[in-house]
Amino acid sequence: MTDQTTRFNLAMRVLHWSMALLIFAMIFAGLTMVRALEPWQLTLLGLHKAFGMLALLLLLLRFLIRIKSPTPSLPSGMSTIQVKLAKLSHWLLYVLMLIIPTSGLLMQYYAARPIVVLDLFTIPAAMVPHIEYFAVFREGHGLAVLLLIAVLAVHIGAALYHHFIRKDGVLKSML
């Protein structure tokens, strides 16, 4: 087997771990913001929005690289249901990583709050707030994050299971 068939390429590995850190930071920041009314909350909100747009751009780049790159095969010995669940969970992660920043963007749009991305550019907002749409996207954003947390727990658990119990190289393929 060549390195290409046993490991993800370097770009995929770097994007995977960079986005993992970014997503955990975004979840932590989001959960901290909604539970606080401190002066720093607005600064954190601005960073959360900017890094949410960065996460969306990285996801698009990651998806393009993913569809053009060879990926390691899943280990032999996995049942058909395990293979299907593994593929489903990965696609669910991609979908949630798309839904969450998109719903955040639409939530801010309908709140008539432009998104300033690290003082580099501004994503415009609606001229007039639409509270009903804002509420729908806010609720969807929160629910999608909760689902993401659950899927990430399963994803991490599966990676650790493959590494420590099965010892089949799944985690090593992304290291």
From TrEMBL:
So where does this one cross the membrane?
46-65, 91-110, 116-136, 143-165
A Pfam family name for this chain? Ni_hydr_CYTB
Provide this UniProt record's keywords sorted from A to Z.
Answer: Cell membrane, Electron transport, Heme, Iron, Membrane, Metal-binding, Transmembrane, Transmembrane helix, Transport
Its cofactor is:
heme b
Location of this chain's protein in the cell = Cell membrane
Which InterPro entries does this chain map to? Cyt_b561_bac/Ni-Hgenase, Cytochrome_b561_oxidase, Di-haem_cyt_TM
Q: Does the keyword tRNA-binding apply?
A: no
Give the family, as the similarity comment puts it. Belongs to the cytochrome b561 family.
Protein known as: Cytochrome b561
Q: Which organism does this record belong to?
A: Pseudoalteromonas piscicida
